[in-house]
Amino acid sequence: MRTDDPPSQVGNDPLSKVGDESLPPVGDVLAAIATGLWRWDNASGTVTLDAEAARLLGLPARAQTLTEAAVRSRFHPVDWNEIYGTVQLAVAEGTLAEARLRIMDDTGRRVLRTVRSRSKPVLHDATEAYELIGTLQEVSEPTPGTAARTPVTGDWRRSREAFLLDAGRALAEARSTEEVLRVAAGLSMPGFSPDGLAVFGVAGDRLSIIGHHGHQPGDDGPFSAMPLDTDYPAAEVVRTGRAVYLSSPEDYRRRYPAAWPLARRFERQSWAFLPLTVAGRTMGAWMAAFTYPVSFTPDERSVLTTVARMLAQALSRAGVAESERELTEGLQRSMLPMLGPRIPGMSVAARYVPTGGGLQVGGDWYDMIPLPNGRIAFVIGDVQGHDVRAAGLMGQLRIALRAYASEGHRPDAVLSRATRFLAGITESITYGSSGSGADESTVYDPRFATCLYVEADPATGVLELARAGHPEPAIRTSDGTVLQRPTAGGLPLGIDPDADYPTTRLVLEPGETMLICTDGLIETGGHDLDSGWARIRSTLEGYLGEDEEDGLELLADRLVQTVHGPTSHYTTGPLADRREDDVAVLLLSRTSRPEQRTDARRTVLTVAQAEPERVAGARRHLRELLHDWADDDQVDSAVLMVSEMLTNVLVHTDGDALLVAEVTGEPGARRLRAEVADGSDDLPHKRQPGELASSGRGLVLMELLAGAWGVDPRGDGKSIWFELYEDAGVFGGEAGE
């Protein structure tokens, strides 16, 4: 055996005890080469450092145990985030975790040194916890002219590609200039990250800061409005379209002596100014400032240039989107009026919600118009379409309606003039000269509009309605019953210039509320008219009335939430292709003192000779009035008798029939009184119809089914009435004539 062979280790004895010559302790060796030891216990969240490791971290040079948060504060935040991912990969693969880390001072603004860490994870089989045992060693700074920052982990180019993918995704998702600037401020570039950011925009011949990060409020004062010929790096970038890189304060002071006094107080060491260019036009400049020297190698310049291009695209998209939003919101504000001063005796609330299809204003509108006779007109309508032309036609039609109403015309005359107006302007648009050279078939695009016009007398509650193809109004009585009110109507505006619009008259009793809306409130979410009204009815019935603290405003919000709130996503209707539409809602309530309130339900309907089909609507309306009546057989009897009375008027007289139905009393002991009046003086009389007779059974049915009935002559005709009692034991049920 050669005497110069190294001694071999025996068993588990340390190498220092083997042979004649001993080696120094491991701790002394590591201290001699400025290498510290550390252990990170993931389970307890603590990090144990020896004296050298503590010194390298900028702490007192003694062994100590710190929390994970305390150690984390000593590292550059970007480096900590990257080493955390490296550690997780090493734990999963059972490999070494290597990284370079920047140690920051107590203020977190200055880099003390750069250290290299190598660690080995030790897993605990029983739990998912692990320990990291490793070393820390200081590494020297790069020499001038080389890369100022070495890669933190892995391959630098691979880290750069991952960073650019994440940055591109985040900037693409930003919807406003504020969001773009916030994303830019949070970008962590691989191996080097700026500590100060600023985005400069160009307006005319001036350069100003539109957003910054890493500076104190007020720091942007000197840069708020600089002429483009200023001797400042950002101004030069905008003038020339070329980037400016300044690796040191000396370089900044030499190239821009006039601007250096302004930049010196920020205590940065390197700067990069890059143009923000879109479609060949420089729209501004981006500044990235660093608190440590950066030499701006070709790879680093490539990253900064790519980020600047993505930032310019994001700012351009955000600017266009904000301009569109500002334009459409301004158009909406100009076309949708304020409801004006409070109306004595009435409360009004309105809402407009545009569809989610980009343009924030469409063809729906509402309006409130003071009239010369002291009354108030309420208008709601919907122009066909959701494009800019629909919005323009809506604005023109709204102005025309306001003009006709202000002249003092009755509701039917207002709509008659409006349909001629809309037909005229759509025809002129269709056949007018546009200068585009398009043939007639390409520009022909007629439009129509639905509309509901209501003239209200606040003192008496009398409402006169004219309807042009619009959904019928709904009335909520003081006891919570909701009735869809049948009203006479005509064709939508713009279809027939000579169309007529009959007027319906009704009375809004104290405590009652009328809802008029566009079809978006009913049909949005895949609903048709029937299922949509059922959805809205439940919301109206849950309204507490004028005694509720928030009143109609709360009810208007609830109606919108019914259509666009969270519950609307799982209460869709049967029509899957009908999802969204503009929503316009107008609520009118007649207020009163508590002693004026009545619990009676009362409705009035007119059935004209020319509209026999409205008898079916009257039957449906009566069922709605008796929706909570205790005896279904009595409801069927009431519907049968009303149908018989209305039909008799249409068959045996030349006039219209007027139905008045009223429910009074407490639930369980209520009375229904239904009365049909006409202009004929001929009184009906009972007959004994044969088996094959087609008439003559009306009064016989009333005698059999009604609790009481009768015929009352009037000066201009007669009325036939009957009563039904919910509890015949209370009211007796004696029939008579």
Describe this structure in words.
It is a single chain. By secondary structure, the protein is an alpha+beta fold. It folds into 4 domains: about 110 residues, 2-Layer Sandwich (Beta-Lactamase); about 170 residues, Beta-Lactamase (2-Layer Sandwich), CATH 3.30.450; about 220 residues, PPM-type phosphatase domain (Phosphatase 2c, domain 1, 4-Layer Sandwich); about 110 residues, Histidine kinase-like ATPase, C-terminal domain (Heat Shock Protein 90, 2-Layer Sandwich). Helix content is about 35%, strand content about 25%. It contains 20 helices and 28 strands. Strand 16 and strand 17 form a beta hairpin. The protein is elongated, with a radius of gyration of 41 Å. The N terminus and C terminus are likely disordered.
**Anisotropy-based shape:** elongated
Rg value: 41 Å
Structural class: alpha+beta
Q: Could you give the order of strands across the largest sheet?
A: 3-2-1-6-5-4
Q: Summarize the amount of helix as a percent range.
A: 25-40%
Average the pLDDT over all residues and give the rounded result. Answer: 79
Proportion of residues in β-strands: 25-35%
Give the distance, in angstroms, between the N- and C-terminal Cα atoms: 141 Å
CATH architectural arrangement of the largest domain: 4-Layer Sandwich
What is the H level of CATH, i.e. the homologous superfamily of the largest domain?
PPM-type phosphatase domain
CATH class of the largest domain: Alpha Beta
* Largest sheet data: 6 strands, antiparallel
| Sequence stretches where pLDDT stays below 50 over 5 or more residues | 1-12, 142-155, 431-442, 729-737
Number of domains: 4
CATH topology of the largest domain: Phosphatase 2c, domain 1
> Quaternary arrangement of the chains shown?
single chain
Tell me the total number of β-strands: 28
Helix count from the secondary structure assignment:
20
Region (Disordered): 1-22
Keywords: ATP-binding, Hydrolase, Kinase, Magnesium, Manganese, Metal-binding, Nucleotide-binding, Phosphoprotein, Protein phosphatase, Transferase
Pfam family, one: GAF_2
EC number: 3.1.3.16
